[in-house]
Structures are given as C-alpha cells and as structure tokens.
Design goal:
Length: 690
C-alpha cells in the first residue's frame, strides 16, 4: 500500500516515523488512521507495526485492522455515556511495588459535570490526591480494590460545601480500572428526612390526641395499624401482628357482639361507620374508644380497603356524662325555682324551650315551641305588643331587656312572668338571635299585691290612729282652753277688780297678775302645741315656721330653717305626723344636745315629706340599749310612728359628733276624713285666751 492511500495525507511524516521506530525497536504502540479506498470512502483502521529479522535483513511489518464496527460502538457508548442521568467517572488504577497505590481519571460524562458542578478537563488525568471528590479514605481504598479485581462497592456520602448528597456505585469495567456511577440523592434524602420528621410528628400528635390510624385490605383480609393503637387497645404487639380478631379481642365482651354486628352491616352496605366501645386497661380501669372507617374503591367501584382512625373518647364521654348530670340538676333547679330557658335563631326562626318553660305554661314538651311570629298565642294582647317592641329594639340596638309580662297557660289561666332577653351576635357583631330566661313570678306577684293591700290597710289604720289622736289632742286643747284657760282669765279679771277695791301693796298685785299672765301664756302655748291652728289652716310649712319661732322664744333654741314652698299643700294626717315628729326631734336637741342651735329642712319630693333635723352637739351611741336613756325612747317612739305610716328613718350620730335624723313620710296616708275641725283658741269670743 502506498502511504498516499493513508488519511489524512498530511500525517505521512508520522507514519514514516512509526515505521522508523519499528525498524529500530522490536514493537511500537498501535495507532489509528484512515484508509482511502478506491471508491473514495474512508475506512478507520488500527495500524500495528513490528520488526522481522531474517539474517542481516530487517523487515518492518504493518498490520491494518478495520475498526469500523469498534468506532461505531465507541460512538454509541460515548452517546450513552454522555446522556446518562447519573454521573459516570472512569479511573485507571496506578500500582507500585506493594499493589494498588493511586488512580487517574480517564473519562467523565456530562451528567457528572452537571451534578458536581465541575468541568471534565479539570478532572481528566488527575490523580486521587487532586480529586474534587472529598472521598472518605476508606471508600477510596475500596474503590482501588474494586479496580484491582475486588468486589463491587456502594456507599453514600456528602461532597462539596453545599451539602451535595450522592449515592456511589463502584464496579470494574476492565482489569486495572474502576467506574463510579454517581447519583444525586440530595432531594431523596431531604424527602426521607422530612418523611421521618413527619412520621415522628404524626406519632407524637396521635399520642397527644389519643388517635391511632388503621387500614383493612379487603382483598387479603390483612390489617395494618399505627403503633399507638396497640397502646390504646392495651394489646401486646410482640404476640402477633395486627388482625381483625386481635382488635375484637380488645373490646369488652358486652360490647363485642354489638360492634361485630355493626361492622359487618357497614361492610355489607359499603358505608362508613362510627362505633363506640369499651376496653379494659392493664390496671383494670375502663376506657371508651370510637372507631371510624370509610371505604376506598378502585376504578371498577369495588371496595378494596377500609381506612380510618381510633380515638380515645374517655374524657369526652366522662365530660358528656357530667354535662348530662349537670343539665339534669339544672333542670331540677329550674323546676323548683320555676325558671324556663329559651333560645331563638333568627335565620331559621326556630325557638327552643327548656322543659321548665313547658311545665310553667302547662304545655306538652314533645311539641315544638311556637316560632317568634306565633308567640302571641302564649301572651296576653297587651303583653304581646310590649314584647314585640322590646324585641325589635334589642335587635336594633343590641341592648338586653328585662320586663314583667302576663303569659297565658294551656288552661287559659294567667301566669305572671319576668322575662329577660339578650341578643346573640356573630364574630362581626351582627345579631343572629336571642337568648333568655322566664321566671314565674305569679306567687311573688300575688304576695306583692297582698303586701300592697296590707300596707294600704296599715296606712288606713295609721291614719285612723293619727286622726283619733288628733281628736283627743283637740279635745284636750279645748278643755284646757275652755276650762283652765278661761278660769285663769277670770282670776285675772277678779284680781284687777280686787286691786281697785282693796288697799293692798301694789307689788303684791303686780306679782300676782304676772303669775296669772305667765300661766295664761303657758296654757295658750300648750294648747297651740296640742292642736296648732296654723297647721290646719295654712299647712305643714307654716306650722313648722311657727314651731321654730315658738321654740326660739320659749326655749331659746335657735333654728336654721329651710322650707319647701310646696309644703303648704301637705295637710291632714301626714302633715300632722310630720309636725309631731319635728317637734319631738327639736325637743330632743333642746334637752340632750348641749347646744342652743339646730338645723331643720323640710321638702316635698315624690309624694314624700322629707324632714331632716341636725345639730352639732354631744351626739350619742346608737348601739347602747334604750334602757335608762330618755333620749333614745323618744327616737324609739318616732321609729314606731314612721314605720306605721310606711315611711323610713335614718339616724347618723356618734358621741361627740352631733346628730342627724332623716325622716321620710308618705303624703297620702288616707283621704281627709275629718271635715269638722275645731281649732281651739281661734275663736274671737272676747276672752283672754284668744
């Protein structure tokens, strides 16, 4: 073959050098070239040269091998090599006298470049000492052993600073070589770690919530459940695996047949189920569990599995029992207290009554309560109008209401009730209904009416007592005026006549006349106090003013007086009682306070006479017994009179702090029944007692 048939022709110098080397040495390394055929096609060949000696003659022999198929296989291998999803690196082992000592990278695919973030040219021909892989020394030793004919090796490691997690499989493709298949498992490991964390959290959540999961394979009959179900069912997991029989074994015998029957019915109906049952714990106590399951179907609508949960509801069950007991006790309390509870939902117009409300109205508790629009059937017409207005206002303003209304029982009798209602709102504050209570106050109402009647009767009796007392006082005043008073007047007249007829010392007659005048003034004052004309003619205000002036002149008691002009309209029994009390309180100040000054205020407010007498004297101890203390007896008498009149009295005093007495007396004790009032001392009969 002429060397011009070799391609490329420019490589003729290399071919000449190869033959030259072959003539000088025994053998040269084969090299590749292309042969140009007569049809113009180029054929890849491998040329191996060698020297043959025949005596003194040297012949260079060249062997040409067609490597077309090998080149095609190499291209396919390279394409596969570069297109692999996993990284691939090929290494040749370097030996020393003791065996495998190092390795050199001879090939790297693009996947490894992508996974590891390196370039092939930075890795090719580099030894292990400069490997980009921060390989564990033990794993590197195992790789060299694989290249030297040892068994395959697989390991996982983290390479680089960015936490790249890889799975590495090492095998030997040819003697003295090993290949590393590198898979990026970073996401898988992260997912596995996340899955383990999720499973751990799930186990923790199941334990905290006392919830376990289970699965029943309907095709094989196999059961699988979470570890927590063993603990909840108080079963030993080492005895045998999960099964339907083992689960049924954990159920209390009285519940077992019921649960098995209900479970079989649910499976036959292909329906979900929720069943409550009891288990016995290791300490022989009892706990309640609920198993809930739902069917899973395949594309053919066949049930392949049942999956579900088991929940420990012991505390919920106990709470439910306590709630039932509490509700029962509450119903009893409502029954004894005659209280009913009601609710109204605005959206559905549904009204709910408690048993106590049905009983209060004598209605059948099995029947639904009337809706809000039909509540008029259980109220009187006036009460229904009042309730409608209150409900409308409550829904518009959100304010609660509290009102007494008459309701109609089933037997048409009237039941007086106190109804309390408040508005229920949603999270945005919009009214969604009403809630409240109904109190049966029929007995209280009747008792209140009876008390009113008794008070009215007592008021009438008190007024009668006051009238009778006034009659007696007027009678005494008349007898005092017409008897003693007139007698003293006659004595004065006779004394004057005797003075002119007899020659007696003038001083003696003057003393006698002064004594008679003083007696006449005393009788006149006593007569006015017993039956003051000003009280009957001008009213309470004028009478208190007269009393204040009288005590100032007679007793030297200065009184700071504040009077309401409206007191002029107060007459009759309430005016008389108020005057007597004011006189007694002022006399107590004069006798016991140790001061010569007092204050008195009187006013008319809300049909009550408001009387206040105060001083800044010695005061007294209200906790001491009245025995031996005259001033306390006077207050005792006043308390009795005020109580009979339906009024109130408050005493504020202490030793050294003075005293204040507040009295409240109803104006309308009774109608005036004494039209005939004779006022002693008011007549103009020419006598001295006028």
């Amino acid at each position: 073959m002429h060397q011009t048939q070799l391609c490329p022709p420019a490589g003729d110098q290399r071919y000449r050098e190869d033959f030259q080397e072959a003539s000088l040495t025994a053998q040269t390394q084969p090299h590749e070239a292309q042969v140009l055929r007569s049809d113009g096609a180029r054929i890849p060949v491998e040329i191996s040269t060698s020297r043959i000696e025949a005596g003194d003659t040297r012949i260079v022999q060249g062997i040409f091998r067609d490597i077309t198929r090998r080149k095609l296989a190499e291209r396919r291998y390279r394409a596969l090599f570069d297109q692999m999803m996993d990284g691939l690196a090929l290494y040749e082992v370097i030996y020393d006298d003791l065996g495998p000592a190092d390795c050199r990278c001879i090939a790297v695919n693009s996947a490894l470049e992508r996974i590891a973030g390196i370039r092939a040219e930075d890795l090719i021909s580099r030894r292990a000492g400069g490997l980009w892989l921060r390989m564990n020394p033990q794993d590197l030793e195992r790789c060299l052993q694989v290249g030297a004919g040892g068994p395959e090796h697989e390991f996982e490691d983290t390479w680089g600073d960015d936490g790249l997690a890889v799975n590495v499989k090492v095998y030997s493709p040819a003697p003295g070589q090993f290949a590393m298949i590198v898979s990026d498992v970073t996401e898988r490991l992260r997912t596995e770690r996340a899955l383990r964390m999720t499973e751990a959290r799930l186990r923790l959540a199941q334990q905290a919530a006392s919830v376990a999961t289970w699965e029943w394979d309907m095709t094989t009959g196999a059961w699988r459940w979470s570890d927590h179900l063993w603990k909840m069912s108080h079963l030993n997991p080492t005895a045998s695996g999960p099964s339907r029989a083992r689960w049924l074994q954990s159920i209390q015998p009285p519940d077992r047949e019921r649960i098995e029957r209900a479970l079989r019915a649910a499976v036959d109906d292909r329906s979900p189920f929720s069943l409550e049952y009891r288990v016995v714990t290791h300490d022989s106590s009892e706990r309640w569990l609920v198993i809930r399951g739902t069917p899973v179907v395949d594309d053919t609508d066949a049930v392949t599995h049942y999956i579900g949960v088991v929940i420990d509801i012991t505390e919920e069950r106990r709470a439910r029992e306590r709630l039932v007991q509490a509700q029962s006790k509450l119903d009893e309390i409502h029954q004894f207290a005659r209280i009913g509870i009601w609710d109204w939902v605005k959206a559905s117009d549904v009204v709910t009554w408690s048993p106590g409300l049905y009983e209060m109205l004598g209605m059948d508790a099995s029947q639904p309560a009337p809706t809000l629009d039909h509540q008029h059937t259980v109220y009187t017409p006036d009460a229904w109008l009042t309730l409608q207005a209150l409900v409308s206002e409550a829904l518009a303003t959100g304010r609660p209401y509290d009102v007494e209304l008459a309701m109609v029982r089933a037997d048409s009798s009237i039941c007086w009730t106190r109804i309390v209602g408040r508005v229920l709102t949603d999270s945005q504050g919009a009214a969604i209904g009403l809630h409240g209570a109904v109190y049966d106050i029929s007995e209280q109402k009747a008792a209140s009416e009876e008390v009113k009647r008794h008070r009215q009767r007592l008021s009438e009796l008190t007024a009668a007592l006051i009238r009778n007392g006034e009659r007696e006082r007027r009678q005494a005043a008349m007898e005092l005026h017409d008897g003693v008073g007139q007698s003293l007047a006659a004595i004065k007249i006779l004394a004057r006549q005797l003075r002119t007829q007899c020659e007696v010392e003038t001083d003696t007659f003057d003393r006698l006349l002064d004594l008679v005048d003083h007696s006449i003034a005393g009788v006149r004052g006593l007569t006015n106090e017993l039956s003051p004309p000003v009280l009957y003619e001008l009213g309470l205000g004028a009478a208190l003013g007269w009393l204040s002036e009288s005590y100032r002149d007679r007793l030297g008691l200065s009184i700071e007086l504040v009077l309401d002009p409206a007191l002029g309209s107060v007459k009759a029994e309430s005016g008389t009682l108020s005057f007597r009390i004011a006189r007694e309180l002022l006399m107590n100040v004069h006798r016991h306070s140790g001061v010569a000054k007092a204050s008195m205020e009187a006013a008319l407010r809300d049909d009550m006479v408001m009387l206040t007498v105060s001083d800044k004297g010695t005061g007294f101890d209200t906790t001491l017994s009245a025995t031996g203390h005259g001033e306390r007896f006077g207050l005792f008498s006043i308390r009795e009179a005020v109580a009979l009149a339906g009024g109130t009295i408050e005493v504020d005093t202490a030793p050294g702090r003075g005293a204040r007495v507040d009295v409240r007396i109803p104006v309308a004790l009774s109608a005036d029944a004494d039209a005939d009032r004779h006022v002693p001392g008011a007549r103009d009969d020419g006598g001295e007692m006028q």
